[in-house]
Amino acid sequence: RGPRHFNLELLPDAPPGVPKEGTDLLRLYHRFRALDRNKKGYLSRVDLQQIGALAVNPLGERIIDSFFPDGNLRVDFPGFVRVLAHFRPVDDDDSGMRDPKQPEPLNSRMNKLRFVFQLYDLDRDGKISRHEMLQVLRLMVGVQVTEEQLESITDRTVQEADEDGDGAVSFLEFTKSLEKMDIEQKMSIRILK
Amino acid sequence: MGFPMLVPFSPWCWLLLLVVLKCSEASSDLNKSTNSTAQHEPNVRFAAASSEADEKISVFALDYDYVQIPYEVTLWILLASLAKIGFHLYHRLPGLMPESCLLIIVGALVGAIIFGTDHKSPPVMDSSIYFLYLLPPIVLEGGYFMPTRPFFENIGSILWWAGLGALINAFGIGLSLYLICQIKAFGLTDVNLLQNLLFGSLISAVDPVAVLAVFEEARVNEPLYMMIFGEALLNDGISVVLYNILIAFTKMHKFEDIEPVDILAGCARFIIVGVGGVFFGIIFGFISAFITRFTQNISAIEPLIVFMFSYLSYLAAETLYLSGILAITACAVTMKKYVEENVSQTSYTTIKYFMKMLSSVSETLIFIFMGVSTIGKNHEWNWAFICFTLVFCQIWRAISVFALFYVSNQFRTFPFSIKDQCIIFYSGVRGAGSFSLAFLLPLSLFPRKKMFVTATLVVIYFTVFIQGITIGPLVRYLDVRKTNKKESINEELHIRLMDHLKAGIEDVCGQWSHYQVRDKFKKFDHRYLRKILTRKNQPKSSIVSLYKKLEMKQAIEMVETGILSSTAFSVPHQAQRIHGTKRLSPEDVESMRDILTHNMYQVRQRTLSYNKYNLKPQTSEKQAKEILIRRQNTLRESMRKGHSLPWGKPAGTKNIRYLSFPYGHPQPIRRDPKVADFTGDDSSDSELPSIMFKPYPRTGTLKKETQEIIPMKSFPRGGKPCHFGYPRNTSQEEHVGAGRREALRPKPLFHAVDEEFESGEESEEEASAGGSRWSAEHRPSKQYHRSHSPLLQRK
């Protein structure tokens, strides 16, 4: 199916927030096809791992994982778009007119935060345990930092966010600790508008 | 602000004194020598007692005349280099003012010394020397370091802005000044229209790249960066072309009866000169790329070829009165892509550094000369002319920026904001180009040349110092960054994580550009150009082994510092540490914050970075290596423990991890199992697997089997001034060659390291399930390389 015949029927049940305009979607489709080396019609981990820049990103593997939720081995185009939709810039007038009965758009602040949360929370138990935090910290920090320093930083991080004292950071606590940050701006990619 | 650089100041303060003494001594000798009539050594110190007519052999004599010019030139350059060292020692300075400031100050200093000691300065700068020797390196460097992809993506806007901007500025300033000159009160009525136009053209030659370093940390976005770069690149060329045309006009019609035919001819000449120059440049670029295809056995002449052909393109264009500047620029741009593939790594580094060095020398000399002529008696100060020049420069630049960008914004997908336009307006700093052109005005045609020179100097000083120093704060102000908020450790960590995440997703999205044209060009490039101009794949064995050696050192260090010990990645301790809520003192928190800020990995810079005077070392490369090494280790660890990979892949699948790119023959080469003995001796000849790369055919495509290829693309070359700005994503291209070639050089980098680790840890686990096998291809020929693996004392 060539790009010219591409139409929106491919995304029958796309949640709101997925871009529906023609050109952006087309570009994403081009990109999807370019990444899909064997023209399988879906992307596997290998395809994403071949993006060189991701290999030198400290969070490269986790980012790739986020494209394959629930242990899937493949991601098709709607799934691809769904993940990227989290990064659409937020239009200010979107939130005003939103119909409260519709599910939240994928690029809302809550959903963006949820996306980040699942980067930390590998076992999907809804909480970032101390160990998970430590692992993330280890990924992001250079080699000169000793283990003790990492541990104490982890302790401090969890301690700052943890309110109910269970030694782990739940999603609500996570959201609360970041309430002052401009998530919408940080997690928006201009070209996905 | 204080000047804590007083301490480093003192060593070269002494040197400065030495220089002064030398100069004054030289000048006094010079005076003596002009008085002597002897043909031979003028100064005879240890003369014989008898004063015979014929001279005795002098034991000690001084001949300064002989070496004067090179001696002084060398001293100047050395002085400027010392000043640069001092400048960079105080590391906040480069962010405060552009380096041109420093060069001007040094020039003024030298000028003061020369003036003070009444020394006759050597005739370094005259028209032919400037245009033949000093200008080409500067332009070549600009063209060579220009990032190609963003340039061509924005080429419409760049041409529109640079071309029309220069013209508008030149004619605008010229005409306005002419009107001013008509006013009798200022005493300028003898300056006619042509002279004013010429002055306008030379004063509109900006050098905005000089200020780039100042607001580099503001991370200007890529199109803005390209605008500034592109303008700097083309501006010189256009000014010189205009200058030459107007000089021709001035010579032709001394009495200002220029007919419209001449004007039309002038315009046509302008276009022909420009386009012709570019055409010449492209041809020479292709020729030189073609020649480098055959130089693999004599790689020492590769830099020579590159430089000579570029220079030749300049000279050839100048012969035909075409624009040499545009020719050399086009040559550099064309040549760069193919030459980089063909030449050896050392030649590549040599070319880059030598280019920087040459252009730096040229620019230094010009600035010093500028300083020399500042402090001299050859000035003519006319208040009206100078003030109005300054004023009109700013006004016309503002007009051209805002008008031209308003128009071009209509056609761009990502229009430039007002903030960007303000930055472009304010970065209109004049540089060495304007001064040179003013200095080389022929006195016969320009009786008031001194006034022009003075005015040019004032404009340069004003823009470089005042605009150069204030542009930093201005950009930071416009940037509206909340940097001074103290964030909690939590926030810092999460912010950095989100930055990485965003960078990663941006990489997944890839670069969006005008597909059609670019793809077409890429196809053409692959099908024809690349076949002709680049080498057939040859084993670059010397490079491979060199890289292996380099990488090994780092790998050794990493292991020895205990980073990659297996405990670092172990499963969580079963017994969780029981920690009460320790009350951490603020200092602890501070120190933690410090640790985080200094040690967290930087987000991959997607914006370009260019420094005119320096080639910055690659800090991100080290970071990338660490990340990759660590990643490999985790993968191997999890494999080894028999865990299924964290992402749920069953361990038994046929996931052959290849670390090299087994184009054509994905043979899983077995390693030699004898990896038992590791000595610390580098030269030990242990039976270790040899890593031999068969460089893949450039136009080949990957065999599409189920291979997991750990990608290592977009590894920057060491020392490349443009950082990861534009990963030429291979996944975007069907032809693997184009993208992978980026990784050709650094490929052994990574492979080597891992190989070493592998041999250390996995010797007993060759047959580990799921196999982290990787292919190292044997090459049972004379180029059999043994990899040294002195590594890996297991901690």
Automatic annotation (TrEMBL), chain A:
InterPro entries xrefs: Calcineurin_B_homologous (IPR051875), EF-hand-dom_pair (IPR011992), EF_Hand_1_Ca_BS (IPR018247), EF_hand_dom (IPR002048)
Domain EF-hand: residue ranges: 23-58, 108-143, 149-184
Gene Ontology BP terms: protein transport
Keywords: Calcium, Cell membrane, Cytoplasm, Lipoprotein, Membrane, Metal-binding, Myristate, Nucleus, Phosphoprotein, Protein transport, Repeat, Transport
Predominant localisation class: membrane
CC terms in the record's Gene Ontology section: cytoplasm; nucleus; plasma membrane
Keyword Oxidoreductase on entry: no
Alphabetized GO MF terms: calcium ion binding
PROSITE patterns in the record: EF_HAND_1, EF_HAND_2
Keyword Cell membrane among UniProt keywords: yes
Superkingdom of this protein's organism: Eukaryota
Family (UniProt): Belongs to the calcineurin regulatory subunit family. CHP subfamily.
The protein's name in its UniProt record: Calcineurin like EF-hand protein 2
UniProt source species: Neovison vison
Upper lineage: Eukaryota, Metazoa, Chordata, Craniata, Vertebrata
TrEMBL record, chain B:
Places the protein is found: Apical cell membrane
Keyword field contains Ion transport: yes
Keyword Ribosomal protein annotated: no
Keywords noted in UniProt: Antiport, Cell membrane, Ion transport, Membrane, Signal, Sodium, Sodium transport, Transmembrane, Transmembrane helix, Transport
Transmembrane segments annotated in the record for this chain: 96-117, 129-146, 158-181, 193-215, 227-249, 270-291, 311-333, 353-375, 381-407, 428-446, 452-475
An MF annotation (GO) of this entry: sodium:proton antiporter activity
Signal sequence coordinates: 1-26
Cation/H+ exchanger transmembrane domain residues: 77-476
Compositionally biased region (Acidic residues): 755-767
Name of this protein: Sodium/hydrogen exchanger
NCBIfam families: b_cpa1
PANTHER family: SODIUM/HYDROGEN EXCHANGER (PTHR10110), SODIUM_HYDROGEN EXCHANGER 4 (PTHR10110:SF103)
GO cellular component, one term: apical plasma membrane
Principal location: membrane
